[in-house]
Amino acid sequence: MLLPAVFAASFALAQASADKTAADKRRSGYQDMGAALQKMQDDDTANPGMLFVQLGQQLWAKPAGAANKACADCHSLADMKGVAARYPAMAKDGDKPIDLEGRVRLCRTVNQQAEPLAPESRELLSLAAFVANQSRGLPIAPPDDPRLAPFRAQGAAIYQRRQGQLNLSCAICHDDNAGKKLAGVTIPEAHPTGYPLYRLEWQALGSLKRRLRNCLIGIRAEAYPSDAVEYVALEIYLMDRARGMVFESPGVRP
Amino acid sequence: MRAGLLVAALIASIAGTAWAQGASPYTVVGDAISQPLADKPGDPARGRAIVANRSVGLCLLCHSGPIPEERFQGNLAPSLAGAGGRWSVAQLRLRIVDGARLNPDTIMPPYYRTTGLQRVAKPFEGKTILTAEQIEDVVAYLATLKE
Questions:
Q1: Does residue A16 form part of some domain?
Q2: Which of A119, A217, B80, B146 has its CB surrounded by the most CB atoms within 10 Å?
Q3: Nearest to B121 among A180, A182, A220 (CB)
Q4: In 3D, which of B87, B107, B114 has the Cα closest to residue B32?
């Protein structure tokens, strides 16, 4: 009994140093989809998320607000490479972490001095998708910022905690039962690899926050208000859990 | 031996008396609730419809069962086929009411409990997932699943 376990452990270690990806058993939701949807995600001319990326590209270059500045006036596109793969991060002079959509909204009001972009609005999601697309193919790489640690711990605690009338936790479905069928749906491992992503059920692009909200509503738990730090904490935890996995926005999901 | 069993049953029945809002009190003896929760006897046909309904019973999210017209069934839990052969009506009742009394780690939702839950969405607060009558219907249906 002991021998195979020891063997397996040393084998895993050897694998990890020899070839990181071969030992990595984590699966993106992408791998749990049928071949047709994978093809749709992979083909830029078929991926509906790319329409939002294109819209985002136009907005990126369009001056807005009292400052009459476009995103492109302050940032080079090259600077956006890798940003989405490391968010959420601490706001420069804030005491709370913000996710990518939060960062875009902040730039919009503070730097462009324009009217705020509503959560889940087409403009906000398109800008986020355009920025996120610059990280496609890169490994998820959360920053080693000690200020994030308490929020990551908060996210982990929420993830483990049972809640809602159905008394389920994220971990029950996404750790203990991932790969099994919840009615007709394969339960994915909940890696935030593809956000913002196009979901066929939504007929729209949606944020990771929207996905988390859906899962909370599914277990009949009180959803958090849209600006709640709890969502960002969960996002930090999920990104850390997916560290090293390939970032694939805009993803497609059923 | 017999006295010991009796004491155990008594303790279980005291501890098993739930006074929760939204759920009427019931008594657990051993691993079962022998008293029906409702006055009217359960109706198997209504019970089947509840089990099959994804937003009422939710059972087929996790379980499979002999309900062929529902194509999408879950595999997080044992099949309901044969449940009525494995368990008595009284045992089935407790498993639906609050399976956590038998297995604290169970993922099966407590269908007739409103306490000990966190952050329940407002429309469901203080309400059980199924009513006493619905649980009797479900139990009556499960009891017909002999194999």
A1: no
A2: B80
A3: A220
A4: B87
Q: How many CB atoms lie within 10 A of CB B145?
A: 21
Write down the pLDDT at residue A146: 95
Decide if pLDDT at A143 tops 50.
Answer: yes
Residue A194 domain-assigned?
yes
Q: SS3 sequence, A58-90? A: HHHCCCECCCCECHHHHCCHHHHCCHHHHCCEE
pLDDT bin (cut points 50, 70, 90) of residue A21 is low
| Residue among B58, B67, B120, B131 with most chain A CBs within 10 A, to mutate | B120
- Give the domain CATH number at A164: 1.10.760.10
Main-chain phi, psi angles of B61, to 5 degrees: -60, -40
| Domain of A105, in residue numbers | 30-254
Size of interface A-B (CB pairs under 8 A): 68
Q: Does residue A100 contact residue A84 with C-beta atoms inside 8 Å?
A: yes
pLDDT of residue A47: 97
Q: Is B145 on the interface with A (CB under 8 A)?
A: no
Chain B residues within an 8 Å CB radius of A161: 118
Sort A3 into a burial class: Cβ within 10 Å, 0-12 / 13-18 / 19+.
exposed
Q: Would A211 be classed as within a structural domain?
A: yes
Question: CB A166 to CB B119 under 8 A?
Answer: no
Alpha carbon distances (Å) from A215 to A45, A66, A163, B9, B103? 30, 39, 11, 39, 24
- pLDDT confidence tier of residue A5, bands split at 50, 70 and 90: very low
Token look-up 């600077």 returns A79
The pLDDT assigned to B67 comes to 97
Rounded to the nearest angstrom, the minimum Cα separation between A29 and chain B is 18
Asked if residue A69 has pLDDT above 50, the reply is: yes
Q: How many domains does chain A have?
A: 1
The Cα B51–Cα B65 span in angstroms is 9
ipTM, 2 decimals?
A: 0.89
Query: Which one has a higher pLDDT value, A15 or B41?
Result: B41
